[in-house]
Amino acid sequence: MAGGGELNLTNKEIKEELTYQKELVEELKSADGNEETIVQSYLANNDNAIAENQGRIGDSDVPEFIDIYTINDDTQLVVTDTEVTLEVTEIADERGATTEEQELLKKEDTDTNLVSSIKKFGETVIFGKKVHAASKTVSARHTRTGYAKISGNKLYTAGIGAKFTYNGEKVTAQTTENYVKVNGVSGIVWSVHDKKNDVQKPSSKRRVVYQQATVKSGIMYKGNGLVVEEKYIRVTVERNHLSKVSKSSVIR
Q: The organism sits in which domain of life (predicted)?
């Protein structure tokens, strides 16, 4: 945790902040699928001097500090001076691909040349005919939700879900859910702009599914809307032809 910037935190304030964060992390590590409830309850019921001193939400677009905690393989917590974000990934069990999913996979472009009498992972080429490993499908979803540190109110959440079908040689992907949602808090109005969802195809062996948007918070003053804060949010899930799933997110 950094104590620089405009906050100029004292050693006592830094110690109190780290204790605050550690207690929340410990509660999350003992959670059983109710992480969102734990975060909101903890923030609402525990005062945070730094967040209170920062004033209303959106006083600064740039956080004074960012602390990141890995709760487990599927959950990550990010704490700044005014916000807490919870990042969660869910991956379903692998299953056999349906006929429709196999047909979609067959249509995918591939840069693999047929060469007789060679073996590769997941395939054998015999007499000029390529025999792939059995096609499999898996679903994954990734969400990132931001909360006001001073109150526990949910500010925004972005989510992406996809199913991937692969056979050891190539992979295809379809979006199953995508959204960016916002909530108004104590006179602050949030709105969503420039939403975009797509499937990126860096190669036949990799697919990246993403949802992105810009969220803005603002207030009404003499009948005019004033933008207080603006954030770009992007969440992704991706998979390669060998069944490895990964995720990432950006808030800036």
A: Bacteria
What is the 3-state composition of the chain as percent helix, strand, coil, each rounded to the nearest 5? Answer: 20, 50, 30
Confidence of residue 222 (pLDDT cuts 50, 70, 90): low
Tell me phi and psi for residue 219, to 5 degrees: -130, 160
**DSSP 8-class letter at 128:** T
Query: Residue 14 burial by CB count (10 A; 0-12/13-18/19+): exposed, middle or buried?
Result: middle
Cβ(160)–Cβ(141) under 8 Å? yes
How far apart (Å, rounded) are the C-alpha atoms in residues 154 and 186?
12
Structure tokens at 117: 């009498």
Q: Is 141 in contact with 90 (CB distance < 8 Å)?
A: yes
* Tens-digit pLDDT profile for residues 50-84: 887 765 444 455 667 889 999 999 999 999 988 99
Q: Which residues contact 5 (CB under 8 A, 6 or more apart)?
A: 64, 65
Domain layout of the chain by residue ranges = 5-95+133-251
Instruction: Decide if 176 contacts 161 (C-beta within 8 A).
Output: yes
pTM assigned to the model: 0.80
Q: d(Cα 59, Cα 76) in Å, to the nearest integer?
A: 25
For residues 39 and 58, give the distance between their C-alpha atoms in angstroms, rounded to a whole number. Answer: 20
Question: Which residue is associated with the tokens 């993403």?
Answer: 210
